[in-house]
Amino acid sequence: MIKIKDGWNAARHDEPVKVERGFAMSDLSIFPVAVFSGMVLSFAVIMLFAVLTDRDPSKS
């Protein structure tokens, strides 16, 4: 039985594979996902604030 630290290489082997940890992804691979989702969320909050506080220039 082959011991593989992450589950991504497990599909290349025909033998039964034992994943050492419970998570298939390493802890480092969640970092770009967290950064990207944080950027998208902050952009959505800024755009929502800009739309809600928009002033019509013709009424001023």
From TrEMBL:
Domain of life: Bacteria
Keywords: Membrane, Transmembrane, Transmembrane helix
Keyword Membrane tagged: yes
Transmembrane segments: 30-52
Name of this protein: Uncharacterized protein
Gene source species: Sphingorhabdus pulchriflava
